[in-house]
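Bumping my old thread because nobody answered last time. Still need a sequence for this structure:
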């Protein structure tokens, strides 16, 4: 199973901005676009400099369609079927990692449930029509026990057989920056394990667990890569510190019991 660290675009402003104005994207990174309803999705590459692949997904994480997108192109890339998610990654990542139509993506709220695994994508065309968003209804809230517009009912399709849940082909995890931003929004402290890379020919120095607190702000590194450094309050050293996000080995919400048990 492949692991992919992703940023989540789950609001209209985030989906509209996407990966615009970025000059690079690490090979194990991507962006997941979450939509409140099934719909045919349309993307373009205006102000986007990184060549990308995009996978359109249903609500269970099944890959329905894969397309490539060229930098700065204003040609619309439209999904052939109603979808709930779209996953953007570096061009070539999908092929290099064996992802294809019918592959399963999970994580960040996408769960492939026991039941029908769609193998014949043409059957998706028979999905119920998409209901318009009514004025005054929050599109981010799905009424309880109500089938989403365009959702395929969980029943056996003609010519299909029911299958047990299978392991996903790709597991999505949020990037360190996404987790830090979440902690900043919630006003929470974090426990991090950080490494210092002194020289390429020497192993990195791994520091003891460290508690950091907000407000968390993001800055550029020495190469001008925006958002690659986080500045925050270091509780151990009682001062403001800057950390390269790529040098953070792990982080979690602060739990006092963890600190008490570190080092015996």
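Sorry it took so long. Here it is:
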């Amino acid at each position: 199973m492949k692991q992919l660290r992703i940023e989540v675009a789950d609001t209209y402003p985030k989906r509209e901005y996407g990966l615009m104005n970025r000059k690079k994207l690490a090979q194990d990174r991507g962006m997941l676009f979450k939509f409140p309803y099934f719909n045919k999705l349309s993307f373009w590459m205006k102000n986007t400099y990184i060549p990308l692949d995009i996978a359109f997904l249903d609500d269970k994480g099944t890959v329905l369609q894969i397309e490539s997108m060229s930098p700065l192109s204003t040609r619309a890339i439209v999904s052939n079927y109603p979808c709930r998610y779209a996953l953007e990654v570096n061009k070539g990542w999908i092929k290099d990692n064996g992802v294809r139509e019918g592959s399963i993506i999970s994580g960040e709220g996408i769960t492939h449930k026991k039941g029908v695994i769609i193998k014949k994508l043409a059957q998706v065309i028979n999905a119920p029509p998409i209901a318009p968003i009514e004025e005054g209804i929050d599109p981010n809230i799905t009424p309880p026990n109500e089938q989403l517009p365009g959702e395929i009912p969980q029943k056996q399709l003609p010519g299909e057989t029911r299958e047990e849940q299978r392991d996903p082909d790709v597991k999505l995890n949020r990037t360190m920056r996404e987790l830090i931003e979440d902690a900043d929004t919630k006003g929470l402290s974090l426990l991090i394990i950080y490494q210092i890379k002194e020289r390429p020919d020497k192993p990195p120095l791994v520091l003891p667990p460290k508690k950091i607190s907000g407000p968390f702000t993001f800055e550029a590194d020495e190469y001008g890569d925006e958002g690659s450094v986080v500045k925050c309050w270091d509780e151990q050293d009682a001062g403001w510190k800057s950390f390269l996000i790529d040098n953070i080995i792990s982080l979690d919400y602060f739990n006092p019991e963890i600190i008490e048990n570190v080092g015996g």
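The chain is about 10% helix and 35% strand. Let me know if any region looks off to you.
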